[in-house]
Amino acid sequence: MNQHVASRRRAVADLMSTPAVTAGPEETMADVAVRMEKERVSCVVVVEGERPLGILTERDMVGFAAAGVAAGSAPVSDWMTPEPDTVEPGCETGDAFASLAERGYRHIPVVDDGRLVGVVSMQDLMKVAQVQPMLHPGEVEAPKGLAGVIVADTVIGDVRGQEGFYHYRQYSARELADKRTLEDVWMLLFDGALPEAQARAGFLDEVRPLRVLPEAVRPLLADIIRAGTRFSPLDALRSAVSLTAAGLGFRPCLDIGAEELRADAVHLCALIPTLTAALFRLHRGEEPVEPDPELAHAANYLWMLTGRRPQAEHARAVEQYLISTVDHGFNVSTFTARVITSTGADLGAAVVGAVAALSGPLHGGAPSRALDMLEDIGEPARAEEWIRGEVARGGRIMGFGHRVYKTEDPRSTLLRELAQRLGGERAELAATVERTIVDVLAELKPGRELHANVEFYAGVVMERCGIPPEMFTPTFAVGRVIGWCANILEQAEDNRIIRPSARYVGPPPPQPVPDP
Ligand code: ACO
Questions:
Q1: Minimum-distance ligand 1 atom for the alpha carbon of 363
Q2: What is the pLDDT of residues 143-167, one digit of tens each?
Q3: Whole-prediction pTM value?
Q4: For position 272, which CATH number holds?
Q5: Is 363 among the catalytic positions?
Q6: Domain span at residue 224?
Q7: Ligand 1: distance of its center to the CA of 402 in Å?
């Protein structure tokens, strides 16, 4: 609703004209016109005693003049707007403004307990804030957290929260994870189609050499590790991406064509696993492992991270995890990447922002916390008490709940199956604990539809495949960077700067600036 937002917290009584200029219902239009002229007002409130019966405005006067009726004998009651809307003196000026704007009035009588105490005009209300007094036409108020607000058209994919379904360019993401490689999905996201054998081979040839750390960046990675006492892999990755973009000479997307931007995107996506693994190893005092051109993207990541040839089933499980998390609508990190791209910045800047957004526990930081929770719970019998305690102290159960899914997260279904396929005690514990958590949350948070999200089983799967907990979220970034980049390419192709508005709710301006 349009609203005089900056005028909040001040009441109508502070601004109204009082006493209001009034007229009796039997007075003639001629007498009232003279009074309006004399009092320099553009409306009078028609009253019986102190009770408002109607309002007569300049607009009514114009209608009256056009009718050609004799002003000396026409009673005001015939030409006024009867039963006018009114406001109370305590009404917030913002609400009064909204009411006037919505109904198209310029004046509104102020009535206290049936008694006319004044009149407030649009002009009075606009005096409260001389800067940007009205929202722009067409501007709408979005719900907190932008929940449910559609901010762009996309052909990359879609999340259907109520149906528990999501897809990439019309193919079920779950089916892609079952049937395709990460490189195929990468091509699908970037180029719009799943590749045939020849195109795939060409793409693999393009990507392989790009996995090697650029010489300009290689020596700087050790400095990133040395910069802090606590190793935070996503913080380190953020810095590494920034240096890499500079080292590779990425230019503002505003200044380059789609082909150069795509080349930057392929290069950065190829490098992120190398950067992630190298930072981890340097932090442990180990040398980075060179990428192996014989290995597929996911397997090569595991190789560079652990220095061991991954078992085929581990490589495939991680690949399926990466495929299933490559893209997911306008999640926070993707949106961040698009916002930065909308400014015309380079692709590196957009990915740095996305990594930063992902580092927040409410977005990407949950899988290791979910695993910590399983560690803490220890055995199924303790689950219920643990969860009740956590919710009672206002905590959130990590790996549960989702902004869009109000049913089971399909990624969680896939990962549960992967966890069970890989086996192990942790997978069994997770399945039992999941059921308890869903039941307890349904009781304690009725109607919120809190189910396991992608993060709950992600940690279980990754741990089983030899990925250490601190590398869970960076591993998510290894796949998600492809989705970020697909969104960056799409945003750049049809760009308008993303620049919403905010509602000012502080003290009403302008306040006099105190002398120093
Ligand atoms: N545990 C307990 N209560 C929860 C949880 C949870 N995991 N998630 C939501 N709720 C409750 C909230 O307390 C709130 O209750 P209230 O109405 O009594 O205040 C209600 O459900 C709605 O919560 P919101 O925060 O409004 O839900 P929103 O859609 O904004 O948040 C989010 C979604 C951030 C994922 C939330 O469910 C959460 O914090 N989950 C835990 C963290 C997590 O797992 N994050 C990973 C998400 S997946 C990803 O980003 C890749």
A1: 50
A2: 999 988 999 999 999 999 889 999 9
A3: 0.75
A4: 1.10.580.10
A5: no
A6: 157-367+460-493
A7: 6
